[in-house]
Amino acid sequence: ACEASGLKTGLFTSPHISCFRERIRINGQMISEAQVRKYLNLLFSLCEEHGITATFFELTTMMAFAHFAAEKVDVAVLETGLGGRLDATNISRSILSIITSISHDHTEILGESIDAITKEKAGIIKASIPVIIGPTVTKSLIEPIANQHGSQCIQVTGSFEDYHEENCATARRALEWLSVSEEHIEE
Fold first, then answer.
1. pLDDT value at position 118?
2. Tens-place pLDDT, residues 133-154
3. CA neighbours within 13 Å on the CB side: how many for 133?
4. Are 84 and 124 a contacting pair, CB within 8 Å?
5. Mutual orientation of helices 139-148 and 114-121 as an angle, nearest 10°?
6. What is the dihedral of CA 47, 50, 51, 55, to 10 degrees?
7. Which residues, at least 6 apart from 59, have a Cβ–Cβ distance to it below 8 Å?
8. Cα(162)–Cα(175) distance, rounded to whole angstroms?
9. 76-115 pLDDT per residue, tens
10. What is the pTM of this model?
11. Burial of 6 per CB tally in 10 Å (0-12, 13-18, 19+)
């Protein structure tokens, strides 16, 4: 929808399904193999030079950021890895945060209970930046954290058949908040 609106749009997702380069795209085009090699060489050199220990996801995130900056994207859509406070994507300056759902995932890092995981994932909320939450996210846990940051908390409501419908409704609400036209959302 952002691309359809005429914005040069970067997309960073994980995991990949067929090919690593799927993770980093601009206007639907995957990063080239040559660009991956170039950025990896640069990132490995920087890590070695400065004694930085970086995870696979952190390196991939930095590659996406470097590529998007070099290509001067207008907007970047970033999918978190684990999500939350410690996620590598959390260093970005956002205009909107989205928490689609909460489940028992990455419990060794995020916490054992849904409450603990929810509070950890709320770590993506930034000062004065609105957060949109999916219909199954516990608003009573997220809203106080959003309020502490001076951020509006908007929950998607309605009945949905499955996660796909929930995610589509959440994406639609985010695009509406971003003032993307109905025509471009449908496209």
1. 84
2. 999 898 999 999 999 999 999 9
3. 23
4. yes
5. 30
6. -30
7. 40, 43, 47
8. 20
9. 999 988 777 788 999 998 999 999 877 555 445 555 677 7
10. 0.87
11. exposed
